[in-house]
Amino acid sequence: MQEGDEERYEMNNDLEKFSEERLMEIQKKLSAGVLIDTTEASLVRDAIEIAVAANGSNYDITVYQLRDYLHYDPVTGIFTRRSDGLQIGSKNDEGYLYITCFGHVRPAHRMAYYYMTGRLPKTVDHIDRVKTNNEWKNLREATNAENQWNKAMKRNNTSGVKGVYWSKKDNRWIAEIRLNGARHYVGSYRDMEDAKLAISEKRKVLHGAFFVEDGQVAAPKPESE
């Protein structure tokens, strides 16, 4: 087995579950009205996600084609062409790295996740919020909401603390969090520091691993300003 083949073999172990024979077994069960277990249901869901994503203009290639054409280094997050070993990738206007292969410009962080797992989640999040850091340890699957949680507060915030605003009626600072369309009232406070602490603790519970400590206060202005 050559080095490239060994690498693909190691990363494709998880894709063996998507064999045609395995999926056909599940299809027969469903056609016969037989209930499938949670593992099989998850398998069907993942297979559908990959199939749907593969129909998009950005994902019209299989993971095998991607791995044959490019090499991704999970330690550095860098893509190189297998044909000549040259590094590829350039930043777009939003600061994300993009790579060009098979006639399309593709987001590098999503291609890295595809390369490593064979899956195409709706959103791939940069844990450290550095858009150019595509190291494997820095990438994780996320929902759109979770991706938004892992961001610094917008600079147009007037209170300086995310989710906190001044109520003239109550003459207090009001703290609340919006989550999945629902409003979570935290409390009202005379002191801003109390409001800041309370909403931070509540957000830790609601956001879990996507909680960002330094995302609760105003982002610093760039030095150029």
From TrEMBL:
Domain HNH nuclease: residue ranges: 107-148
Sample GO molecular function, one term: endonuclease activity
Signal peptide residue numbers: none
Gene3D superfamilies: 1.20.5.2050, 3.90.75.20
Pfam family, one: HNH_3
Keywords: Endonuclease, Hydrolase, Nuclease
Protein name, as recorded: HNH endonuclease
Organism of provenance: Rahnella laticis
